[in-house]
Design a protein that fits this description.
- The chain contains five helices and two strands, in the order ααββααα.
- With 130 residues, the chain is mainly alpha-helical.
- The protein has a two-stranded antiparallel ribbon.
- The protein is elongated.
- The termini are far apart.
- This is DNA-binding transcriptional regulator, MerR family.
Length: 130
């Protein structure tokens, strides 16, 4: 018999708030959540693992829309799931690399501006006060 966990227990194990657990269910990131006789959610071990995957995606900056796209591979029969997931993660990696390059360009521009202000400060220090 499979063991089930309450929302509070899942929240404690995953670090996600109870509100987030419910929100993920509401937007379709997780489905098939069992209910007990009183209507309380009962999460399985596989639900917990999936929440941990979603939490990992949050930590790497993945948007909800991207998580939903990834989750859709569970229902896809067109492409083997492993291949689709690998290709998705490769695509996400390219996006992150592009973001890093843009951040590097921004940092270079910021450094240029800092240099500009330092030069102005140095020229003001060299001019005698009248």
């Amino acid at each position: 018999m499979e063991k089930y966990y309450s929302s509070r227990q899942v929240s404690e194990r995953t670090g996600l708030s109870i509100h987030t657990l419910r929100y993920y269910e509401q937007i379709g990131l997780i489905d098939g959540i069992a209910r007990d006789d009183n209507g309380y959610r009962q999460y399985s071990e596989s639900d917990i693992v999936w929440f941990q995957v979603l939490n990992y995606f949050r930590t790497i900056g993945m948007s909800i829309r991207e998580m939903q796209e990834y989750a859709s591979f569970n229902n896809s029969e067109e492409v083997p799931t492993l291949t689709a997931r690998r290709e998705f993660i490769e695509s996400y990696r390219r996006k992150v690399v592009e973001q890093m390059a843009e951040l590097e360009r921004s940092l270079d521009r910021i450094d240029e501006k800092i240099g500009f202000f330092k030069n102005l400060e140095n020229s003001n220090k060299r001019q005698p006060d009248n």
